[in-house]
């Protein structure tokens, strides 16, 4: 029995700013730093390929010395609302009731909640009391694809069932006010907040692209390249500048063997559904795919419109392809990278 993705729906937070409107806040934040350094930071924001980003907090709150407790309280309150709205949208697209979902996976790494997000959704939407839960909390940007992989494996083992994967992230809640490192600055320049939900099904009558194959690829000796460090002021970003180069080095081993085991080459793939990690990572992957005669235009557009929303972002890219209703038989690859360091891949066929 095949497993299909039947619906994808995003939900954006209530606050948003264009990058040009964030620059004054950045200037105020940097006012005691060296002028040359300030110019470098402003140039970085302006050249990050992110025109706009959304947030669970207004800029004044982001650039205020609130405690970890205060920001995490905002995170918990807001992600519950975002998750519920995005899940309702995806259920409406799939023409389903909350009670028709058998398996729920919630994905988030930008705050801490116990009980996890799924428990609140089960209560507010009166989902099944025997629904199977799986919160995924520590896989970062890769977790949107990871969640789909876990849902697919559950559904493959349980024909006639449906699953929901809800990714909700608020990187602005991790901004470190007293950290003027390039890692914190780059993070602030590229990240935004957002949510997305995916409905999957192993019911024979449900429609959507089928998950033909999936795989994870783990880089050795790269655990320090990406992630968060828990400090007194919250979750402090870890982001190594060598990430794009590391991806380039491993790229042939990530893509080609995965396709070969399905008797395919990159020429057989019409749709590239790639997570926009940031400008440099996008440029690296664009160069690699461009050399193979492919483009990642949708990835670049999602980065421009929303920034990197960690695990949720690749689902925004997926929604763009789903809404265009590709022709029967066309194939796509979902690809994302995350802490570990790892790459997650899914092969789809419409």
Q: Which descriptors would you attach to this protein?
A:
single chain, 350 residues, alpha/beta, Peroxisomal Thiolase, Chain A, domain 1, 2 domains, 11 helices, 24% strand
Structural class of the secondary elements?
A: alpha/beta
Name the helicity range: 25-40%
Average pLDDT figure: 92
Alpha carbon gap, first and last residue = 15 Å
Main β-sheet, in a few words? 5 strands, mixed
Name the CATH architecture of the largest domain. 3-Layer(aba) Sandwich
CATH top level of the largest domain is Alpha Beta
- Total DSSP E strands: 13
Oligomeric description of these chains? single chain
Spans where pLDDT lies below 50 across 5 or more residues: none
Give the count of structural domains: 2
């Amino acid at each position: 029995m095949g497993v299909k993705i039947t619906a994808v729906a995003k939900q954006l937070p209530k606050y948003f700013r264009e990058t040009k409107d964030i620059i004054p806040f950045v200037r105020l934040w940097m006012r005691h730093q060296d002028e040359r350094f300030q110019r470098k930071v402003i140039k970085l924001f302006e050249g990050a390929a992110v025109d706009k980003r959304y947030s669970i907090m207004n800029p004044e709150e982001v650039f205020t010395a609130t405690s970890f407790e205060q920001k995490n309280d905002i995170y918990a309150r807001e992600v519950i609302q975002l998750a519920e709205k995005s899940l309702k949208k995806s259920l409406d697209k799939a023409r389903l009731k909350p009670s028709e979902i058998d398996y729920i996976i919630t994905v988030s790494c930008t705050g801490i909640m116990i009980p996890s997000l799924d428990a609140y959704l089960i209560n507010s939407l009166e989902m099944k009391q025997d629904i199977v839960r799986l919160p995924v909390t520590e896989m970062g940007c890769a977790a949107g694809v990871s969640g789909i992989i876990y849902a697919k494996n559950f559904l493959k083992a349980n024909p006639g069932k449906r699953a929901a994967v809800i990714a909700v992230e608020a990187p602005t809640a991790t901004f470190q006010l007293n950290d003027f490192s390039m890692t914190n600055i780059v993070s602030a320049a590229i990240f935004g907040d957002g949510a997305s939900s995916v409905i999957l099904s192993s019911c024979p009558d449900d429609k959507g692209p089928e998950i033909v194959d999936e795989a994870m690829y783990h880089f050795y000796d790269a655990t320090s390249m990406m992630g968060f460090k828990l400090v007194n002021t919250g979750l402090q970003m870890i982001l190594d500048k060598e990430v794009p180069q590391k991806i380039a080095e491993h790229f042939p081993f990530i893509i080609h063997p995965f396709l070969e085991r399905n008797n395919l080459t990159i020429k057989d793939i019409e749709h590239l559904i790639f997570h926009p990690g940031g400008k440099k990572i996008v440029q690296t992957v664009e160069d690699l795919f461009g050399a193979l005669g492919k483009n990642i235009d949708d990835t670049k557009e999602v980065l421009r419109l929303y920034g990197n929303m960690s695990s949720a972002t690749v689902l925004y890219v997926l929604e763009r392809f789903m809404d265009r209703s590709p022709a029967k038989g066309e194939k796509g690859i979902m690809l994302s990278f995350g802490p570990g360091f790892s790459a997650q891949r899914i092969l789809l066929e419409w």
